Amino acid sequence: MTDLIILRHGPTAWNAAGRIQGSVDEPLSDAGRVRVATWRLPADAPAYRWVASPKRRAWETAQLLGLAPEPEPRLVEMNWGDWEGRLLDELRASGALTAERERLGLDFHAPGGESPRDVQNRLKPWLAEIAVDGRPTGAVAHNGVMRALYALATGWDMVAKPAHRLTDGCFHRFRIAADGTPSVVAMNVPMVGE
Known about the structure:
The protein contains seven helices and six strands, in the order βααβαβαααβαββ. α3 (56-64) links the parallel β2 (49-52) and β3. It has helices at 13-17, 30-36, 56-64, 88-94, 99-102, 116-133, 143-154; strands at residues 2-8, 49-52, 70-71, 137-141, 170-176, 182-190. The chain has a six-stranded mixed beta sheet with strand order 3-2-4-1-5-6. The radius of gyration is 16 Å and the shape is globular. It is α/β, with parallel strands linked by helices. α6 (116-133) crosses α7 (143-154).
């Protein structure tokens, strides 16, 4: 079993506005940089091999935390296709985002975008590589990636409410079995410094 710590990047201006970022390469906002400066990683974090999504918001978060990660393209956020840059409320109001569509769970996707199952399929080889490598690994990624990983670990179908809501400003610990299968160790561990 190999340990994996994963956390979401700090806030961006698009996060604050409620815009869907997906593959758009937004940097952290000034407020996001201030927030990340208050975060503290667990005491064992320096012993981990660190990777990060190459998107600016994840990469900058890693650097602000004093990490020197390797880029891992399979950790980029879920592609939201035609809906990137849009507001969820606008999509619901326009009828583009319906309850029926959301009930697709793991197979939900925006026009021209990826589904959470697609994200899982790109994560599985990465998780298998972590298992083979055997080194504890830390990752700075995105909400969609973490949700897909959590669904893999728990069997969550992304239709019902999850047992754990993923909270920003926290890290999540998983164990990766020899075959690359993740399991939950601890969710929503706060990173706020004292």
